[in-house]
Amino acid sequence: MNVLIKSATIIDPESEFHNTTQDVLIEKGVVTRIGNYLKNPGNYKEIQFNNLHISQGWFDSSVSFGEPGYEERETITNGLHTAALSGFTAIALNADTNPIIDTNADIAFVLSKSKDNAVTLLPMGALTSNSNGTHLAELFDMKSAGAVAFYDYKKSVSNPNLMKIALQYASNFSGLVCSFPLDQDISRNGVMNEHVASTKLGLKGNPALAEELQVSRDLFLLEYTGGKLHIPTISTARSVALIKEAKAKKLDVSCSVAIHNLCFTDDALSDFNTNFKVQPPLRTQKDIGALIDGLKDGTIDMVTSDHSPIDIEEKKLEFDRANYGTIGLESAYGALQTVLSTEKCVEVLTRGKSRFGVQPVPIAIGNILNATLFNPDDTYVFEKGDISSKSKNAIFEGAQLKGRVYGIFSNNKLVLKK
């Protein structure tokens, strides 16, 4: 595809054109020229937007759709289109479908559904068969079929010996094991953070301890096995400290944080809006401060929208009975920029790629273009009209956001908002 991008501010520290405003000429998907006032060499499509910025394409390490089995929540086709309009050129897909993605055939299916798409879909296989925490799934076979990691989405592995074996076995083929940080014997039926707010609201609490015990256990196991571990969506100050200590020991561990856990405290549940019922739960301002500091100093490797489409029937219930989860792709960038600078946002939206097997490609002459196009200064209230997902369970609905995405150029394809 041949495209001329006009007057774009390049945000890419790996590029010699970082923080400069340039025209970018792309021919057959490759950057052939970067400079001021480039002429259109042919009848190429020209891209011009107000306050246009481009960066390396963004990556989301925890995205759920619905297909197969829950297509009424989201399909792979529409989900990937939503990801593109949200600025993501690659997403790691969770295995929480029906059936659970736990065989090489399941991996092959989701890859076939995403073929020739602008967004690269990176499938994660379940860590245990049917994500039931009893027996390891077919990890090597799934890795051979294209799985980039193994994760029982939002389900912790309670058996420490099984987690130990998973880390040892996967290390034979450099497999990335993901462990959800929750001790279910501690959390029990808690539906929100155990704190002053839970007492006021009369809701059962899920204490920070439930997360921190699991994080601590998994780090001890990692130190013993020498495996490769990713801890998705941490939410407490102590978890940040534990992971920082582990990295100081040179353990091969990475972690992520959900963007909504950077933006809302447990006080947001005062009106029992079930869109705020998420797992891990919203915590305190102290936790938010530690999470943001962890992002800035590199303890936390990446952010995620933790996009989880849920049927309205499973959200329009009493708070105790409602399902966990929020969609987050469409609001991810605008929400993140309310707590971080533009350059730091781009950094944390791109630096998790290599952990999941995607090599970063700088914006440079001779390189294939993989880029996100956006305006960092546009402020607006996020509303239902901004949602492209089939499900509408958006925690950020009604929130003031900063920064809009125009689209992406990836895999020699251009996707722009209309």
Report on this model:
With 418 residues, the chain is α/β, with parallel strands linked by helices. The chain has two domains: 3-53 and 365-379 and 401-416, Urease, subunit C, domain 1; 57-356, TIM Barrel (Alpha-Beta Barrel). It has twelve helices and 18 strands. It has helices at 76-85, 104-113, 139-145, 160-170, 184-187, 196-201, 208-225, 237-248, 260-263, 285-297, 332-336, 342-350, and strands at 3-11, 21-27, 30-35, 45-47, 53-56, 58-63, 88-93, 120-125, 149-150, 177-178, 192-193, 205-206, 229-231, 253-258, 302-304, 371-381, 400-410, 413-416. Strands 1, 2, 3, 4, 5, 16, 17 and 18 form an eight-stranded mixed sheet that branches. A four-stranded parallel sheet has the order 6-7-8-9. Helix 7 (208-225) runs parallel beside helix 8 (237-248) and helix 8 runs parallel beside helix 10. The longest helix has 18 residues, at 208-225. 53% of the residues are buried.
